[in-house]
Amino acid sequence: MKFVFDEFKEGMAIAFAAIRANKMRSVLTTLGIVIGIVSVTLMGTAIEGLDRAFNKSIAMLGSDVLYIQKWPWGDRGDDWWIIKNRKDVRIKQAKDIEKYSELAKAVNPATGAMRNIKYGQKLVENVIVIGTGSEWLETSGATIAFGRFFNRLEGDGGRPVCSIGSEVAANLFPNENPVGKVIKIGGYAYRVLGVFDKQGSFLGLQSLDNRVYIPINRFFQEFMSHRSDIQIMVKAKSVADLENTKEEVRGILRKSRGLEPKEPDDFAINQQELLIQTFNTIGGVIAAVGLFITGMSLFVGGIGIMNIMFVSVTERTREIGIRKAIGAPRRTILLQFLIESAALCLIGGIIGIIIAFPISLIIDTFLPTAMPLSVVAIALLVSVIVGVISGFLPAYRASRLDPVDALRYE
Amino acid sequence: MSSIIQLSNITKFYQVGEEKVHALDGVSIQIQKNEYVAIMGPSGSGKSTLMNIIGCLDTPTSGLYELNSTNVSDMNDNELAKIRNKEIGFVFQTFNLLARSDVLHNVELPLIYGGINSAERKKLARAAIERVGLTDRIHHKPNELSGGQRQRVSIARALVTQPSILLADEPTGNLDTKTGDEIMMLFDMLHKEGNTIILVTHEEDIALHAHRRIRLRDGKMEVDEAIKNRKVFTQPKTVMA
Predict the structure, then answer these.
(1) How many domains does chain A have?
(2) What pLDDT score does B120 carry?
(3) Chain A contact set for B115 (CB, 8 A)
(4) How far apart are CA B156 and CA B85, in angstroms?
(5) Engineered SS bond to A131: which of A1, A216, B19, B36, CB 3.0-4.6 Å?
């Protein structure tokens, strides 16, 4: 054991002496590994970021909430045309669920449109106006920063009141308290009741803060027909009750929509779980393809290492001959060159991570991520493995050299 | 007394294209402990091949080679490496030192492969370097040394494992006459200390240091004789100069 350690130490010393002796060549060779490690770690970081962004967004949907819509989430298969021709989900269904469901804790219809909003001279364009029920806070999990959401009375009565997203509040009321002020949504006057907490965006695409919420009954009067397609959110009493709630809601909906027993459902009951499944499939494919493509650059780097190791072995044929003549066994020569190529790659890996780290901080500004420690560890491990694999053939050749020939080599 | 080296009917063929070249053709030699033998012959006589076989760098095509009563003629690569490490000290014409390592490390190297621990290694290496008179050059690199000094380093490296035989291949071939003489005096001294020395050379002058002369021609032994008019140096003090 002691012997192996000494051999290893000797191998390290030789490797670093050789790398030092050929600085320029070593740097250029290592560059391939550096680029490979940078691209692989950044891809790993980006995938991690995608994962985190998704998980954060998906948490907003709530694991105990059912979304009743015309369109199912995830895979639609070949039924696109059939789904498109389904009857719209209407406010009547929301009312029926509310009336008949025993397992639902809260039922809340919602629909939206884009409008410009004005307060005095200030204008905010293209704000999403959500028409919804008074139980929005319950079903969406959103919270109010100050003021309040409209109550049941105001909601059912279709009063001209609203609660506004934090971004809208910041744009319209930079220096004053919005509560109690009257704003114009698409030309109609609404009194502001409260302001939401900052929520960020959904899947990094759509800001949840550039929104205003008004009673759905008012929405139907001023922006859209009450016969138009909406979605209904149903919050179960608990996650454990979700499946039962789903079955109950399905029954109510089928009756409400007048379906015969043999007809299939003409609506979709969506839930968080569905999106997670879809994401895991898509995310898995993205990760595999991304890592494969970036892995190619690492592979190319490995070929560079192999090439230079062949050169190194040829150059040092005589040295190999000397070492063999004075008693170095094959294993020692093999180990020596393996250590050299592994060390080259490890240096490349370390440089790669040093370069990749600040870049990952830049990525972090638009995709919340951090270079995971596991990626760093794997990157270093992979670079050593690449070194050992690409160094093996040259090292093997060196170890098999005939000492007589090697000593005669000029 | 048993021989250190016992070569019986050694042959070595090389296949060069279609042709079979007989580098050695039935050579039998016995060498006793503390002998001082010169192997001579013109180029192509097979003396290099013989040296490679004696030095366990190569194995014979047929015949038996016993080194210290161990049959080494059909050992594999790794077994031969172990024998070379323990039993044979090489001194080459071109010194064959590692250019990037200092004197101490060069001399230490066979001990590393022999699995000797670091402290012991340093002690043995320093002792060997002292014997060849290079203690003050211990941390110099080969390119900072003269030819004679480099050859001394390679002799120290050969000695450090206390091998059964010292095998010197044209040890003065790359040195001027004066330095060459100094190196030969060193060999004489080592022989007096009880080492077995095999000298491969084509210079009659150098061969005269030995006690016994073996001449090869066309792969066969031509002459095997004791040397009567040995060259004796009268001023052994200059050895360490």
Answers:
(1) 2
(2) 93
(3) 2-3, 6
(4) 14
(5) A216
